[in-house]
Design brief:
This protein is an alpha/beta fold and 804 residues long. 40% of the residues lie in helices and 17% in strands.
């Protein structure tokens, strides 16, 4: 295979850890594998925004079609157009992401007169096919303002918006995403939404030179730049009582300042530039290597020191090095304080035996970080396991009739409404049936079978790379992800899923389609058993709302309509989430098979119920523990990453400034979509939380909000709000499927902020408030508990499949 490793070349050129990583990888691929690799680099000056955008354009136009595989690791190289690209992320342009100054604006200054261009930039679809729009927006801004205008300051809000959009396009087209450290993988906004990110530590290209004698000095090597915090190393060393030298290798813009800081201390030596071949001996001869950067991506220096048998001193906020250094085992990890660093110097200098032991431990632990391991992980899929046991002796089959449920997503460890419905509703069917859920997992994900309760199992099959490529291509054409649609329509590209389905159907009494998208698989395996369609939404209406307007998107909507019609036509029973959905489905498709309304439910027994003085006390305690004033009121918004939920979150962001006394807590994966955006001060992005934290918030908030303008099915969030005793304010769209509007407040969007204000003023202790909460809880227990819904669906399936 011909592999292109594509990267920017810094201007002026310097050779640092990034350059050594890529050259080491190329050398290994050429010398130790059957592949042919070439390092392809373009000069990339980046002192101005104009240079940065020119670099992104240059890489977008680079012809790499002669390679079978392209590997990129740093901006803007991932802009290259290649169908088989792997991103092995070292870092983005951090000054426009996690190190963007807090004091800088995040929105384009209206005085610049380019509000229209900024709005177009916000609306632009992150798709390679729409790159021309971004270049046009930038060129128009330059032509209108002039190249020297303050709007093009770097870093600045206009450049930040552009680069974020460009990175989303470049990385979004990649087939796989990996990161050099968990520190990098965890940074908000770095990777496309929903990307599965593997972490693989890169090795060093330096030859190992394990120490044979105790060290006689401290040594560190890095670019002499402010983020490396060598000034703190020097200050701590000067404050220590050690009597051995500190040797500092490297060059950089901070050299003069650092030398001035150490001028009167003869123990400190600046070695200047040190060739790579001299570094192993310097590492091996040191007592320890102090390496204390600020939020480093990885820290090759730490790896090289440990591989040489020398312990490392680092700080708790140093990022990547903390993943390599274990405090007390392979080095010392301290708070970023001068006195603690000074104490670490003194401790290791006075205890050579301890330093030697730490170094040996480090050498052993780093031995597994090799070029062979990296290339294997880059060029091959993740290892799969055949079975994932539940940890208990739980039978997957109990002898009841078997239902096989098909899904384009994995449901155990659920994060969104669809996963929750598939997991809890189908598991509730086990009073009458055994249920086996066959799920399509992301490419490279762990495969196997999970058994979570008697008679309920889920088998996950990972998409092949070809299947993933088809989904990515469709997403680029449509402008939004289409994993559900293409997951089912291109299922032949993952033949193992069809093989598993064929085996299960040999034992099945019926099939449940969780969403319509797996209907094509039934024809491919020759399904002859009855089919039940579990319609989470009216899919064609939902997609028509959330897909952008284009010829490709319109064609995709037509495809959704056809696959949904196919699911309906072949079914003996259709389960819908609400009577409203049933009416819409009849209006779209005409006559339907027998139907049953099965709303989205909740695990009522696990939701705490609080009202009156108890809720007030919980709220006060939570606010104080979180550092907020006790007189704040709390509004809760629970939502997964789903277009209607994102639109509702935008509504909250817009109305929050009108309600400064209300603290909006934003919970769930939808928060990732807004990572890096400056939001009103009273909007707190919390993101995904565990069940225990969610229970605390449900019993502490004053109200739950749901300003949804679009969507289908029943909103799980509303069910949870009402089960917990929360006052609830929702739109009519958000309340679809709920029978009693007297138990919550319904408002249109223009009046939503006023409705919240009125609800906040409600006395929690008032008898009417308590009575309303009690009646809402009772309604949820009687109509929306999963066990109740499961029995209702089991009755319908029994009649349609077994009795009928």
């Amino acid at each position: 295979m011909k592999i292109g490793v594509v990267a920017p070349a810094p201007v002026p050129y310097t050779r640092g850890g990034f350059e050594r990583l890529l050259s080491g990888l190329v050398n290994h691929l050429n010398e130790a594998t059957d592949h042919q690799a070439e390092l392809v680099k373009l000069p990339f000056p980046e002192t101005t925004l104009h240079e940065v955008i020119a670099g992104y354009r240059n890489f977008a136009g680079l012809d790499v079609s002669g390679f079978d595989l392209v590997i990129t690791a740093k901006y803007p190289a991932w802009m290259v157009d290649h169908p088989n690209q792997i991103v092995y992320l070292c870092h983005t342009l951090r000054g426009l992401y996690d190190t963007y100054p807090d004091s800088f604006p995040t929105s384009v200054d209206s005085t610049w007169g380019i509000d229209d261009l900024a709005e177009r930039l916000d609306r632009a679809v992150a798709s390679r096919s729409r790159l021309g729009e971004l270049w046009a927006i930038y060129d128009e801004a330059v032509a209108r303002l002039g190249a020297d205008h303050p709007a093009f300051g770097h870093p600045g809000p206009l450049g930040r918006k552009l680069v974020h959009k460009l990175d989303r396009i470049g990385m979004g087209a990649a087939r796989r995403h990996l990161a050099i450290a968990q520190t990098v993988a965890d940074r908000p906004g770095y990777f496309p939404p929903g990307a599965h990110v593997e972490v693989v530590f890169p090795p060093t290209d330096l030859p190992a030179q394990p120490r044979t004698v105790d060290g006689t000095y401290f040594f560190t090597a890095s670019r002499l730049d402010a983020p490396k915090r060598l000034d703190m190393v020097i200050e701590a060393y000067r404050a220590s009582a050690v009597d051995v030298p500190l040797r500092i290798a490297g060059s950089g813009p901070e050299r003069d300042r650092l030398q001035a800081a150490a001028a009167d201390d003869p123990r400190i030596e600046f070695l200047g530039f040190v060739p790579d071949e001299d570094l192993p001996d310097l590492y091996a001869g040191a007592i320890a290597v102090p390496f204390v950067p600020d939020r480093e991506d990885y820290g090759l220096i730490a790896l090289e020191a440990l591989a040489s048998g020398t312990p490392v001193i680092t700080c708790t906020d140093s990022g990547g090095p903390t993943e390599l250094v274990s405090d007390g085992t392979t080095g010392v990890v301290v708070e970023p304080q001068v006195d603690q660093l000074a104490e670490a110097f003194e401790r290791l200098a006075a205890n050579p035996d301890q330093a030697r032991t730490m170094g040996l431990n480090g050498c052993q632990e780093m031995s597994g970080i090799t070029w062979s391991r990296l290339s294997a992980r880059l060029l091959g899929p993740r290892r799969s396991v055949s079975k994932v046991a539940s940890g208990r002796d739980v039978p997957a089959r109990t002898g009841k009739p078997l239902l096989v449920a098909l899904s384009t997503f994995v449901s155990h460890n659920p994060r969104g409404g669809g996963q929750l419905r598939a997991l809890h509703l189908y598991r509730a069917l086990t009073s009458r049936f055994d249920v086996h859920l066959l799920s399509l997992a992301p490419t490279g994900a762990q495969e196997g079978t999970v058994v979570t309760s008697p008679g309920f199992a889920e088998t996950s099959v990972a998409r092949t790379w070809a299947h993933s490529d088809a989904e990515n291509e469709a997403a680029a054409q449509i402008g939004v992800p289409a994993n559900d649609l293409v997951g089912g329509s291109a299922i032949a590209l993952t033949p193992r899923y069809l093989a598993e389905l064929s085996t299960l159907l040999g034992q099945a009494s019926a099939v449940i389609l969780s969403h319509p998208y797996m209907a094509p698989s039934l024809d491919l395996v020759g399904c002859s058993v009855p089919v039940v369609y579990d319609a989470h939404n009216v899919e064609v209406r939902l997609k028509d709302t959330v897909y952008p307007r284009s010829a490709a998107a319109d064609a995709a909507v037509a495809q959704v309509r056809q696959v949904e019609l196919d699911a309906i036509s072949r079914s003996v029973l259709v389960a819908l989430c609400s009577t409203e959905d049933e009416a819409v489905m009849r209006s779209v498709y005409g006559a339907l098979p027998p139907t049953v309304v099965i709303a989205n439910g909740t695990k009522v027994d696990e939701i705490p119920f609080a009202t009156g003085v108890e809720r007030i006390a919980n709220r006060t305690a939570w606010l104080r523990s979180a550092g907020f004033a006790a007189d704040k009121r709390i509004a809760l918004y629970l939502a997964s990453w789903h277009p209607p939920n994102l639109e509702a979150a935008e509504q909250i962001h817009a109305m929050a400034p009108e309600l400064p006394d209300v603290l909006f807590l934003m919970i769930g994966s939808h928060v990732d979509y807004f990572a890096g955006r400056r939001l009103p001060e009273n909007v707190l992005q919390i993101g995904l939380v565990g069940d225990a934290t969610k229970r605390v918030l449900l019993s502490s908030a004053d109200l739950g909000v749901n300003p949804m303008a679009t969507g289908s099915g029943t909103n799980l969030k509303l069910v949870e709000y009402l089960a917990s005793g929360l006052q609830t304010v929702t739109t009519a769209t958000g309340a679809r499927g709920l029978p009693d509007s007297e138990l919550f407040t319904t408002s249109d969007l223009p009046g939503f902020a006023a409705a919240i204000e009125a609800a906040i003023a409600t006395d929690h202790d008032a008898a009417a408030s308590i009575d309303r909460a009690v009646r809402a809880r009772a309604m949820i227990e009687e109509q929306f508990a999963w066990r109740v819904l499961g029995e209702r669906l089991a009755d319908a399936v029994q009649r349609a499949v077994v009795d009928g």
